[in-house]
UniProtKB/TrEMBL annotation:
Residues 15-91 form the RRM domain. Keywords: Nucleus, RNA-binding. This is RRM domain-containing protein. One of its GO terms (cellular component) is nucleus. GO terms for molecular function: RNA binding. It holds the Pfam family RRM_1. PANTHER family: OS08G0320100 PROTEIN, RNA-BINDING (RRM/RBD/RNP MOTIFS) FAMILY PROTEIN. It is found in: Nucleus. InterPro entries: Nucleotide-bd_a/b_plait_sf, RBD_domain_sf, RRM_dom. The keyword DNA repair does not apply. SUPFAM superfamilies: RNA-binding domain, RBD (SSF54928). It comes from the Eukaryota.
Length: 128
């Protein structure tokens, strides 16, 4: 557990999920403890900034049994008093596939001072 071989789109396994919106103070131990109730975890990582070493607010969990992923995705999750978002990882190269239909991107690490701007973007009041 804890290796960092793969990032979001790099050789994703069927049991691998992306967890976004983690509280910065979430430890790897808390992270693993939260998700191990769903099944055996074979890998886990909380991504960190290369320069500062501080958590970036997202991570990955890989379950031994890929069938638990649907259960995990279907539920709401709150870790350290913060709701997190769970997504299935996408194998590299699949993004070009005609089966890949999402037009969303994950943007993390936005300062709280950007709340109003982000709210206006979500509500369609600003154009990108």
């Amino acid at each position: 557990m804890g290796s960092r071989k793969n990032d979001f789109g790099d050789g994703a396994s069927p049991g691998k999920i992306f967890i976004g919106g983690l509280a910065k103070e979430t430890t790897r131990e808390q992270f693993v403890k939260y998700f191990e109730k769903y099944g055996e975890i074979i890998d886990s990582v909380i991504m960190k900034d290369r320069q500062t070493g501080r958590p970036r607010g997202f991570g990955f969990i890989t379950f031994a049994d890929p069938t638990v992923v649907d259960t995990v995705i279907a539920e709401n999750h709150i870790i350290n008093d913060k709701q997190v978002e769970i997504k299935r990882t996408i194998p590299k190269g699949s993004a070009d596939s005609k089966d890949f239909k999402t037009r969303k991107i994950f943007v993390g690490g936005i300062p709280t001072t950007m709340t109003e701007v982000m709210s206006r973007l979500r509500n369609g009041l600003l154009k990108v």
